[in-house]
Amino acid sequence: xxxxxxxxxxxxxVSTGIGEAQCPANAIKGTAVEIGRxxxxxxxxPAFQPDGxxxxxxxxxxxxxxxxxxxxxxxxxxxxGSCNLEIKALGNPYYDMSRLGISFCATPKHADxxxxxxxxxxxxxxxxxxxxxxxxxxxxxxxxxxCAISGGIIGKSIxxxxxxxxxxxxxxxxxxxxxxxxxxxxxxxx
Length: 190
Hints:
alpha/beta, Rossmann fold, two-stranded antiparallel sheet, 10 strands, 18% strand
C-alpha cells in the first residue's frame, strides 16, 4: 500500500529551530519529540512542524505466522473513542483490511493480536491481563494512540500491565498508520 495523503499533524513533528515550543503533553525534550506522548495538537508550531511521513509505528516484535490470516481483537481500556473510530475504519471499502487477510474477532481467545486503545482506566487492569492471557500463542499486543502508549495528558499507560510488541503513536493515529503497523508486525514489509 502506498502512502496516502494524511493529516500532517498525525505525523512526527521535527524541530525547525524557530521560537519556543509549547506542549501540553510534555512530549518535547529539547529538539526532539517523544512521539508516544505527542497528542497531535500543533501547539509546538512554528518551533516544530510535521515531517509528513505516516509510517510512525515502532515494531518490537514480528510474527510471520500471521501472514495469511490475522485476527485482531480491539480492547478499549478507557478511550475517548477516537482511536476506536480510526481502527474500525480499517474495515471500510477504502482501507479494506480483509483483502490483506486481516479481520476483527469477537473474543481474545480467537485472536492473534490484541489492539489496546485508551488510558488504563480504574478497574481495567484485571480485564486487560485476562485478555492478554486468553490470547493463544504466538500473539502480538499493540498499543495504539498516545493514551495507551504513555497515558496521554489524562491518565496511565498500559505499560505497567503489559508490554506492547507494536506501538502506534498518534492522537488518534491515522488508519493508514495503523494498517501499516499491522502489515509490518507480520513481517510483510520493512
